[in-house]
Amino acid sequence: xxxxxxxxxxxxxxxxxxxxxxxxxxxxxxxxxxxxxxxxxxxxxxxxxxxxxxxxxxxxxxxxxxxxxxxxxxxxxxxxxxxxxxxxxxxxxxxxxxxxxxxxxxxxxxx
Length: 111
Description:
Layout: E1 2-6, H1 7-18, H2 24-37, H3 41-47, E2 50-51, E3 57-58, E4 65-69, H4 73-85, H5 94-104
Antiparallel strand pairs: 1-4, 2-3
Helix pairs in contact: 1-2
């Protein structure tokens, strides 16, 4: 799976993965994906990423898109399931959420 996502989308995936629960195997999958998705110090510098004292994140480069490849099909399927079951997508960012879900191959649930 190849993703081309912006920093906001990347952070939303990190948040979704951080909220998973279940057996140890679930945490292992989430941790592997977090290793791919969390911003490394050089990436933080590239977009001016700063973690605020209140826990909020800020970054200067809104347009930057990250190319992330998830080579393991099992991890890609796990990420797809996490995104599909995540219930806290911000409604105000519907366009970015829809773009992200489309890239992940998540079908919209009309029911």
